[in-house]
Amino acid sequence: MTSTTPTTAMPTEGQHGLTQHSDGGWGLVPVQTRSERFASTEVADFPAVTGREHEWKLSPVATFADLTGGELDGSRTPIETVDPEGVTVSWIGRDDERIGTAGRPEDRGSANAWSGFAEAMLVSVAGEDEKIAVVTRTGLGEAPRGAHTVIEAAPNSRGLIVLRGTGDARLAENVEILVGEGASLTVVSLQEWSDDSVHLASHFARVGRDAKLKHIVVSLGGKVVRLNPSTHLAEPGADIEALGLYFSDAGQHLEQQVYVHHDAPHTRSRVNYKGALQGEGARSVWIGDVLIGPKATGTDSYEQNRNLVLTDGTRADSVPNLEIETGDIEGAGHASATGRFDDEQLFYLQARGIPEDEARRLVVRGFLTEIVQKIGAPELEARLIEALEAELQGA
Fold first, then answer.
1. How confident is the model at residue 4 (pLDDT cuts 50, 70, 90)?
2. How wide is the angle at C-alpha 329 spanned by C-alphas 328 and 333, nearest 5°?
3. Residue 357: what pLDDT?
4. In the predicted structure, residue 237 carries a pLDDT above the cut 80
5. Which 8-state DSSP code applies to residue 59?
6. What mean pLDDT comes out for the span 277-282?
7. Are 364 and 345 in contact (CB under 8 A)?
8. Measuring CA to CA, how many Å separate 376 from each of 179, 207, 309?
9. Which GO annotations describe the biological process of this protein (predicted)?
């Protein structure tokens, strides 16, 4: 399914009853709500990326021009899997009816990946027992690649899926997550790429009736990682817990643009992203959009982002947004903060004989491990805490 609208910034005429200005002539009305952004699966429907577009203005677009506008290798990505009973990994064609069910690209990088992939990797989860499956992408090389993944949780199923990236990569990809009625699914996207790697990803999730999705983004490696998750709470009782953890070192750009669309009654969302930055040129970007639609009565929503700055020369952009189109909700709110160490915490630790450097590491570890401990997989949690400790050695 495609569209011929030529721009992502100015979509439709007469949106919300608005019309062009009498002195105008440009003929289009700016986007009035988050759900009305232009979307297409065809890269040709999007203009070339310049960095002035609203979705790219905080991104280092020159570093990944080959992923947003060049030809991509859409063949199967090399994978290593550890999949228990109840989880199967296979490959499906572009014509599979599940592809496109969770969402469609809203930017040129996502559309380029969608236009270029040959087959999609399908991860199927079935059975009511808890299970953990790990899919590792490694050995992708330095050539630009495009990929597509579908994760499908059958009704009333339970499972935790880890998508892990290691080694060299220049990857643009889309991940669709389908959570069936009554299912409980956790998806962990773990970026442990090499220092020069670039990864652009869009995740689209559709959560069914009385189903729950826990979506966790952990970005530690890579020169540029831009991972944007969008969740559609499409049926009554749908629930999303969107969590994120990132640690940006010198010259590293880690970005997340999170979108939650409450589109049915009695849905719930919690968004909590935390990051730390150290070193000259370390950069993080977090944009959180929550839309409570007119049908989403009884919504319970809250989003927050916290950034801890460890050294000079860093920059953290944090932009929470909240749109409410019905007055009948349980609650909604958002928060954002960026700062340095809490002096009272450091004083407390130092007063008990802990050296300042060690006290600082303890504060940072406590700040970040809140997210790790919510994964629900002890072995993975322990390994990630070790990885954070290694990052902190340079703080």
1. very low
2. 135
3. 79
4. yes
5. S
6. 95
7. no
8. 18, 20, 27
9. iron-sulfur cluster assembly
CB atoms within 10 A of CB 33: 13
Whole-number Å distance between alpha carbons of 330 and 334 = 14
Determine the Cα–Cα distance for residues 334 and 118; give it in Å rounded to an integer. Answer: 40
**Going by DSSP bridges, is the β-strand pair 79-82/132-137 parallel, antiparallel, or unpaired?**
antiparallel
Phi and psi (nearest 5°) for 390? -65, -40
* Site of tokens 């721009």: 7
Which backbone phi and psi does 131 adopt, to 5 degrees? Answer: -150, 155
Name the band, by pLDDT with cuts 50, 70 and 90, for residue 58: very high
Question: How does pLDDT run across 171-215, given as a tens digit for each residue?
Answer: 999 999 999 999 999 999 999 999 999 999 999 999 999 999 999
Could you tell me how many residues make up the chain? 395
Pair 195, 166: CB distance under 8 Å: no
Q: What is the pLDDT of residue 344?
A: 79
Output the pTM of the full model. Answer: 0.91
Separation CA 136–CA 192 (nearest Å): 10
Q: Provide the residue type at 56 as one letter.
A: W
Q: Please, which residues bridge with residue 275 across strands?
A: 246, 307
Structure tokens at 45: 């429907």
Residue 79 pairs in a beta bridge with 137
Structural contact between residues 250 and 223, judged by C-beta atoms closer than 8 angstroms: no
Continuous H helices in 228-355: 343-350
Tokens 């059958």 label which residue? Answer: 154
Residue 152 structure tokens: 């499908």
Instruction: Report residue 351's pLDDT band, with 50, 70 and 90 as the boundaries.
Output: confident
Residue 209 token pair: 């009736």
- Assign 3-state DSSP to the chain and report helix, strand, coil percentages, each to 5: 15, 40, 40
Q: Which residues pair with 277 in a beta bridge?
A: 248, 309
